[in-house]
């Protein structure tokens, strides 16, 4: 009798637990069907989207000039400060000028001697010309006197050129900056003998305002950009992103596009001109350039997570007017950041599913659409465990 009573009590308790579990929503919904899955969507509209090419680039000096010793001599002192900005014609090195001054003095003495010889030859030639009409001098003596005068005049001109050359070399003793820019490290020190046979490199000067940015773009991307630029015009300005991730306050402008594809990388070299008025950037720095070379009219920007692919190509799922998922095939597009840019395949105002796509088993399935930027509902509080009776 006791056993029968215990079995009856256990049966009643099991039935009560099953009923309680059913009331708490553990079973299927009304009619035995699962509720439609909740999906997040974004509304897409056609717009004008910039076609950008992003690449790594390196800064290069606009002009770079070598400062060399053009005469032989010993360096007496360095006048400029290494790493400072210099102007055109600013003195940078001083080479011992005394040997050059002595060479100039010797050239001037040779010129004076040539001028004296020329004066004597001219006087002898004048006397010969005066005696020639009376036949007091032979024709040969007259010709010799005139030839001596001409040789003396030529020697004077040669001596004058030697003096000018000596003065030029004397001026080279003071080495000046050939261009305005930032001076580099000195390659020689005081007391060094320079200019012996070759023009010794003393230092370099780099013009850093403006700067060149040298970078490359894939030939396929460049071809597509050129095709789109015929439609939208585009811009030749380039944004510069510094190594720390910040945007430089000056925009560069494209000034060169290569016409040869590098067979090793399949890229084409481009170059842009970047103003650097504060001299904050230095040649050799690696930066990221973002070039807007064209504008695509009537394009759609779709989050990359919404793009699906199969044998037919890329497609997305949209929410129809009857709250059912529908498939829309897309043409080949391009990736820009976290978005996928296409020129068609959608209609203005389409609700593209971006979250919960994996819950949609097939097109035509009913869904529960919510805006993707809506905050999710707070989860229900867990039921307190029942006390044991």
UniProtKB/TrEMBL annotation:
Q: Where is the Multidrug resistance protein MdtA-like C-terminal permuted SH3 domain?
A: 302-359
Q: Biased-composition ranges for Low complexity?
A: 366-389
Q: Main localization of the protein?
A: membrane
Task: Please give the PROSITE patterns that the UniProt record associates with this protein.
Answer: PROKAR_LIPOPROTEIN
| Record family assignment | Belongs to the membrane fusion protein (MFP) (TC 8.A.1) family.
Query: NCBIfam families recorded for this chain?
Result: RND_mfp
- In its UniProt entry, what is this protein called? RND efflux transport protein
Species for this entry = Solilutibacter silvestris
């Amino acid at each position: 009798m006791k056993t029968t009573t215990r079995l009856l009590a256990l049966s009643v308790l099991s039935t009560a637990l099953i009923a309680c579990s059913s009331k708490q929503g553990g079973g299927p919904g009304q009619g035995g069907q699962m509720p439609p899955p909740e999906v997040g969507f974004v509304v897409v509209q056609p717009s004008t989207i910039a076609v950008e090419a992003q690449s790594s680039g390196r800064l290069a000096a606009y002009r770079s000039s070598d400062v060399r010793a053009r005469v032989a001599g010993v360096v007496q002192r360095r006048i400029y400060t290494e790493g400072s900005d210099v102007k055109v014609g600013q003195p940078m090195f001083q080479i011992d000028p005394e040997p050059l001054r002595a060479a100039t003095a010797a050239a001037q003495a040779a010129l004076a001697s040539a001028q004296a010889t020329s004066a004597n030859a001219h006087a002898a030639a004048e006397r010969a010309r005066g005696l020639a009409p009376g036949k007091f001098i032979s024709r040969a003596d007259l010709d010799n006197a005139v030839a001596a005068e001409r040789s003396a005049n030529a020697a004077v001109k040669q001596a004058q050129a030697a003096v000018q050359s000596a003065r030029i070399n004397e001026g080279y003793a003071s080495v000046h900056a050939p261009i305005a820019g930032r001076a580099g490290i000195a390659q020689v020190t005081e007391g060094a003998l320079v200019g012996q046979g070759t023009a010794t490199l003393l230092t370099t000067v780099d013009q850093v305002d403006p700067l060149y940015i040298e970078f490359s773009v894939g030939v396929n991307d460049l071809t597509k950009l050129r095709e789109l630029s015929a439609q939208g015009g585009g811009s030749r300005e380039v944004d510069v992103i510094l190594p720390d991730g910040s945007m430089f306050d000056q925009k560069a402008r494209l000034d060169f596009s290569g016409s040869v594809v590098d067979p090793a990388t399949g890229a084409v070299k481009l170059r842009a001109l970047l103003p650097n008025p504060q001299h904050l950037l230095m040649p050799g720095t690696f930066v990221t350039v973002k070039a807007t070379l064209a504008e695509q009219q009537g394009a759609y920007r779709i989050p990359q997570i919404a793009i699906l692919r199969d044998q037919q190509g890329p497609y997305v799922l949209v929410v129809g007017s009857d709250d059912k998922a529908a498939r829309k095939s897309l043409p080949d597009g391009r990736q820009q950041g976290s978005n996928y840019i296409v020129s068609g395949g959608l209609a203005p105002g389409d609700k593209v599913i971006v979250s919960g796509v994996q819950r949609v088993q097939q097109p035509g399935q009913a869904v529960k659409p919510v805006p993707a930027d809506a905050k999710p509902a707070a989860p229900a509080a867990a039921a307190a465990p029942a006390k044991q009776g």
